[in-house]
Amino acid sequence: MSQHYIRITPDRFDAVLFDLDGVLTPTAKIHSLCWKVMFDAFLSQQAAATQQPFQPFDIEHDYKQYVDGKTRYDGVRSFLESRNISLPEGTPTDPATVDTVCGLGNRKDELVQETINRCGVEPYAGSVALVRQLRKLSIHTAVVSSSANCEQVLRAAGILELFDVLVDGSIASELKLPGKPEPATFLKAAEMLSTKPDRAVVVEDAIASVQAGRAGRFGLVIGVDREGNDSILRSHGADVVVADLAELVDD
């Protein structure tokens, strides 16, 4: 789908709400690998304790189906439920060494922060070009992410100043907003930008996030397909799917 078939213009839209990981930055790869490292270590211990075969965390299936687009603790709960594993909930202050839902989530978060600090973040050039184009058109831009590291990543990528509003995992927790696939975080961002959902665009790469955009009745839901998930994103609510947001930038 090229920009000749879809244009985001101020006569139709007031704002564009972007996901972070996999849409603005390649940090989805960091997250998926950190989830795997954390869960594989936990699952290995579980297998040894229960004398059951070790079944590792699969990025292609488990990450996309149970974790991607969800808040840290929701992702832990969803995956553990898929394996019929029950753990105490714990609290957000749990140390990363504790085997609770929150402890595992915090363990994964530590891995993400260590990786970002060590390797840095380079944003997708096509995504940055689209954001700059939108801002020249006086269309508001926001980041809506389940990640609690949203501001850190945007700052590391050098693009924090390109967004008027951030609604991340920390804000969602503070305001008790349910995570994706519920549309609450997107609706909050639209409210903060003083725009109605039908005048806003959602840009997402995860199944749960596309579902959230559709559930919120946003004016346009754009799926970003970097891994051959075009039909999956469309079937879950994307109006259009692009391989890179550069496709939506005017020549």
Q: Tell me the strand percentage band.
A: 5-15%
Count every beta strand, where a strand is a DSSP E run of 2 or more residues: 6
Spans of at least 5 consecutive residues with low confidence: none
Radius of gyration (CA) equals: 18 Å
Largest sheet, in brief, is: 6 strands, parallel
Quick one: CATH class of the largest domain? Alpha Beta
Number of H/I helices:
10
Oligomeric state of shown chains: single chain
Structural class: alpha/beta
Distance between the termini: 15 Å
Average pLDDT, to the nearest integer?
93
Total individual domains? 2
Shape: elongated
Can you name the CATH architecture of the largest domain?
A: 3-Layer(aba) Sandwich
- What share of the residues lie within helices? 40-55%
What sequence of helices (H) and strands (E) makes up the elements? Answer: EHHHHHEHEHHEHEHE
**How are the strands of the largest sheet arranged?**
3-2-1-4-5-6
CATH fold-level topology of the largest domain: Rossmann fold
**The CATH H-level homologous superfamily of the largest domain:** HAD superfamily/HAD-like
Family: Belongs to the HAD-like hydrolase superfamily. CbbY/CbbZ/Gph/YieH family.
GO molecular function: hydrolase activity; metal ion binding
Keywords: Carbohydrate metabolism, Hydrolase, Magnesium, Metal-binding
Pfam families: Hydrolase
